[in-house]
Amino acid sequence: MTDVSFVALACGLIIGLGAIGACLGIAIMGGKYLEASARQPELMNTLQTKMFLLAGLIDAAFLIGVGIAMLFVFGKPFTS
Fold first, then answer.
1. Phi, psi (deg, nearest 5) at residue 17
2. Domains defined along the chain, listed by start
3. What is the rounded distance in angstroms from the CA atom of residue 19 to the CA atom of residue 5?
4. Between helices 3-39 and 44-75, what is the axis angle to 10°?
5. Is-catalytic flag, 3?
6. Long-range pairs for 55-61: beta carbons < 8 A, 24 or more residues apart
C-alpha cells in the first residue's frame, strides 16, 4: 500500500468513527434529557438549554475531526 492509500484509510476512519461517536453521544444525552425532564418537569427549560449547548459542542468536536481529515485529503502531505 502506498502512503496516499494510508491517508485515505485514516481519513475514512476519522470521519466514520467521529460520526458514530457523535451520534451515540447525542442519542445518550437525549435519552437522559427525557428521563430527567420526566422526573422533574419544572427544570425542563433549563435542561433543554444545557442539552442544546452540549449537542452543539459534540457536533463541533466531530466537525473539527472532519476538518482535519479534509486537511489531510486535500493538503496532499505525502506528494512531492
1. -70, -35
2. 17-75 (1.20.20.10)
3. 21
4. 180
5. no
6. 55/26, 55/29, 58/22, 58/25, 58/26, 58/29, 59/22, 59/26, 61/18, 61/22
Note down pLDDT in tens along the chain; length 80 residues. Answer: 777 788 889 899 999 999 999 999 999 999 999 999 999 999 999 999 999 999 999 999 999 999 998 888 888 666 65
Among 59, 60, 67, 70, the one annotated catalytic: 59
**Contact in structure between 65 and 15 (CB atoms under 8 Å):** yes
Residue appearing with cell numbers 491517508: 7
